[in-house]
Amino acid sequence: MEIVHQLPGRVRIRIPEIESTNYCQRVVEGSANDARIKDLRINPACISLTVCYDPIRMEIKDVLDFLGEARPIKRPVAKKKSRLANKKTKVPETKSAVSPTAKYFKPAVSASVQEKIKHIIKSEDPGKPYSDGKISALLMEENIEIARRTVAKYREIMGILPSSKRKK
């Protein structure tokens, strides 16, 4: 016997004895009596057997005992997986309780941009207020690259009305 593929609750095993009709009948009758086995598929072309079982009530060794006395020859890939599963990975310790993603967000920068937006809006003509796109263009002139939607977001956060409602 050789385990070809294994997932929790399903295993595919290559069994040379599968060509024997007596062996197939014994396995099918045994699976019908065992409630832990959900499905059994025999593939004579591949000389393999796929067993779907309840992983909570049954382990792979129980499936192998059910199929016969012979122990399987596992492939090297399966051995690699088991070796990696036993390895422990060390999590690096951080000196502060701050999340590592916090370094990507710069609240100080957004605060200064919000102040500039507030200053631009205060200095605008009340009869012809700047749109979010115009504010974005004015900030571009000051080498602050910011999108129109970001200007709108900051304006809403600060509680400033849109240009159509600021018009007097």
Report what the structure shows.
- 43% of the residues lie in helices and 14% in strands.
- By secondary structure, the chain is an alpha+beta fold.
- It has two domains: 2-85, Alpha-Beta Plaits (2-Layer Sandwich); 101-166, Homeodomain-like (Arc Repressor Mutant, subunit A, Orthogonal Bundle).
- The chain has a four-stranded antiparallel beta sheet, covered by helices on one side.
- Strand 1 (2-7) and strand 2 form a beta hairpin.
- Helix 5 crosses helix 6 (148-157).
- It is rod-shaped, with a radius of gyration of 34 Å.
- Mean pLDDT is 77; it is low at 70-74.
What level of helicity do the residues show? 40-55%
Strand segment count: 4
| Number of helical segments with 4 or more residues | 7
The gyration radius over C-alpha positions equals: 34 Å
CATH class of the largest domain: Alpha Beta
Order of helices and strands: EEHEEHHHHHH
Low-confidence stretches: 70-74
CATH 2nd-level architecture of the largest domain: 2-Layer Sandwich
Give the percentage of residues in beta strands: 5-15%
CATH fold category name of the largest domain: Alpha-Beta Plaits
| Main sheet strand line-up | 1-2-4-3
How far apart the termini lie comes to: 86 Å
Count of separate structural domains: 2
Largest sheet: number of strands, sense, barrel closure: 4 strands, antiparallel
Shape: rod-shaped
Structural classification: alpha+beta
Mean pLDDT across every amino acid position: 77
